[in-house]
Design brief:
Blueprint (H helix, E strand, L loop, with lengths): L14 H6 L26 H20 L3 H28 L9 H32 L20
Helix pairs in contact: 3-4
Amino acid sequence: MIKQVKLMGEMHRFIPAWVASVVPSSRIGEIPVTHHARQHGVSKYGISRTFRVILDLLSVMFFMRYKARPGHFFGSLGLGLGALAGLIMLYLFFDKFIMGNDIGTRPLFLIGVMLVLSSVQMITTGILAEMLARTYYREGSAVSYIVREVHEGDQPHS
């Protein structure tokens, strides 16, 4: 089971979460251990390491939810940004062509344009991430599932 868990960087803190991705959580348990006081030196754990742990935690959450479908994450973000950009641009369209006001020097116009570009970028990033995920799982070295049990009489499909 542990061979199926690939730890990179400082992800050793989240071994239970990674193990839960390959076995049912009912098979994961805790055992009591004895912790002894530090005999030499001082702890090097500081606030700078806390930020790295938070970033690693966000990475774990992303991979747990969107490992096989990263396009859902980036696409949702892109669609949300696009909806906000659409509302801003619709307001500016109304203000320019119905009210006759100048919108070229407004910060809101720049924000709307940047949101449109961000939306397009997030959606295309989602498409690229989906293509990479499909390529990764198609190569045969990685699977998005684990066969826990094969029943007698079941034949694999060719």
